[in-house]
């Protein structure tokens, strides 16, 4: 879904950056360590849309979670944010660590937003099963 929304925004002439959240956090931590964080934040602030994909697959370090929160806070009400995750909101503390930080992050993300919730079996899993059936029949 994140990729589809990013592509639609690109086709509409918007400037878009797509990140898997783990890669984004690594990039933010490296930029902080290399003293280039302000430049990176400035580059990201010039985007119309930021897509943060797969939040929650790997818990963030305290510093990583704080940098992610800062980025979301910077983008709040200035840019469009697309966040994809399989985690319900009540489990976000497992990823971000602190209840306070999680609450503040969710407050910014859910204010004036559209939440799309999908249920059912994963498309990738359905496709894998279909391919597996074809292979076993051959």
TrEMBL record:
GO molecular function, one term: ATP binding
Annotated IstB-like ATP-binding domain residues: 2-129
Top-level taxonomic group: Bacteria
UniProt lineage: Bacteria, Pseudomonadati, Planctomycetota, Planctomycetia, Pirellulales
Official protein name in the record: Transposase
GO aspect biological process, one term: DNA replication
Pfam families noted in UniProt: IstB_IS21
UniProt xrefs under InterPro entries: IstB_ATP-bd (IPR002611), P-loop_NTPase (IPR027417)
